[in-house]
Amino acid sequence: MTQTLHIVGGGMAGSEAAWQAANMGVSVVIHEMRPKVETFAHQTGNLGEMVCSNSFRSDDDEQNAVGLLHWEMRAANGLIMATADQHRLPAGGALAVDREPFAQTVTDKLTSHANISVSYDEVTELPDDGHWIFATGPLTSSALGQAIQAETGAEALAFFDAIAPILYADSIDMSQAWMQSRYDKGETEEERTAYLNCPMTKDQYEAFIDALLVAEKTEFHEGETAGYFDGCLPIEVMAERGRETLRFGPMKPVGLTNSHKPDEKAYAVVQLRRDNKLATLYNIVGFQTKMKYGAQTRVLRMIPGLQEAQFARLGGIHRNTFLNSPTLLDQQMRLKSKPNIRFAGQITGVEGYVESAAMGLLAGRMAAAEILDHDIPTVPQNSAMGALIHHITGGAEAKTFQPMNVNFGLFQPVEGLKGGRRGRKDRYKAYTDRAKIVWSEWLGNFS
């Protein structure tokens, strides 16, 4: 092991990249600026810390693209998925985790690995030599962002990512709220009752929307623009798009029956999801917000059951920087102008914990293979991994490139299957069956 792989950033992507490369026999140094250099969103210096939701979304590997990505990462001995499974919380058909022990376990596994060391320093330049992966995520430091901008010759693209509030379970009025997963989804009673639901009447909903629209919001800094990623729209921005938008989004009342009033149909429902194993904390699902703290408290306490809510963390908003990857990166995620550098994770233009970790997994394996002088075939486009990397390294339109979650729209069609909504179930199953075959074949190149 005469050559070392340097990984900048110890989030989902950097942690997964380090794990994959180290397990291939490569010496790895993780450069993590926390806790010496703090960010507004992180609370600890742990690797793999979750700063937004605690959900990895659907775990259905037959009918959901992100569930398929879970399957592929598990098949590749992924650190992030194994740790998520270890600290799993009830969440219906989703995979939610107890965030603090999750990050501690990721940290412990990486720091105890014989091939991995951690340097707690800030990297502010793009090196001219050596093997590097930059996985600095949405909170890339200002100095490094300027270095990237200087190298690429393009202005950094940015959108704003909002964080949902977390509140204490014992401050929720359970005489108004009830426990139920939508459509009673889940294999166990615990899964079928994984979400806490707060119902609203039409009058309560209308008053809530009125309050959202006039609430005081965080101001943007000079020169910044609010280009939100649609998967993380603040609730007040959704309300501004139409009074019914929230009722057809995170506040939709379908698939739920109020156990206190089973004959009364709610006009809208606010859902909360368990945020830790002790079930002492709950986050409000889909309620990212840029309201100022005082306004948040007032408006959120209008929700039935949350009138006396006490908040462990209020919502926030931050700039989220990403590359125009279709123009800047090659198919192995290398910076075209400096091929000794790869980028991975959310900074490449994927969105979500799982997608970020998946790109770290690929970057780690590709970098290790290069160091070890091993040839690796192109990642199969018909896998979830391949669909994502193809999208960010050339499949997307560069002029309109925006962050993307994994979805079946990125997959090549399967011939002979019915299109449209009615054929969706068979079509999705065909996508996932095909993906599992080609991904398993690709992993065989490492055995």
What features would you describe in this structure?
The chain is of the alpha+beta class and 447 residues long. The chain folds into 2 domains: 5-156 and 323-444, FAD/NAD(P)-binding domain (3-Layer(bba) Sandwich), CATH 3.50.50; 162-319, Elongation Factor Tu (Ef-tu), domain 3. The chain contains 13 helices and 17 strands. It has helices at residues 12-23, 65-75, 79-86, 99-111, 142-152, 189-192, 202-214, 235-240, 293-300, 325-328, 353-371, 384-395, 424-443; strands at residues 4-8, 27-31, 55-58, 88-89, 94-97, 116-119, 131-134, 157-163, 166-168, 178-179, 195-200, 268-274, 281-284, 311-313, 316-322, 334-335, 338-343. A 6-stranded mixed sheet has the order 6-2-1-7-17-16, covered by helices on one side. A 6-stranded antiparallel sheet has the order 10-11-12-13-9-14. The protein has a 3-stranded antiparallel sheet with strand order 3-5-4. A hairpin with a 4-residue loop joins β4 (88-89) and β5 (94-97). α2 (65-75) packs parallel to α13. The mean pLDDT is 90.
CATH class group of the largest domain: Alpha Beta
Question: Which structural class fits the helix and strand makeup?
Answer: alpha+beta
Helix % is 25-40%
- Major sheet summary line: 6 strands, mixed
CA-CA gap between termini: 19 Å
Could you say what the CATH architecture of the largest domain is? 3-Layer(bba) Sandwich
As residue ranges, the low-confidence spans are none
How many strand elements? Answer: 17
State the CATH topology of the largest domain: FAD/NAD(P)-binding domain
Average pLDDT for all residues: 90
Strand content: 15-25%
Rg from alpha-carbon coordinates: 22 Å
CATH superfamily of the largest domain: FAD/NAD(P)-binding domain
Shape: globular
Can you list the strand order of the major beta sheet? 6-2-1-7-17-16
What is the string of SSEs from the N terminus onward? Answer: EHEEHHEEHEEHEEEHEHHEEHEEHEEHHH
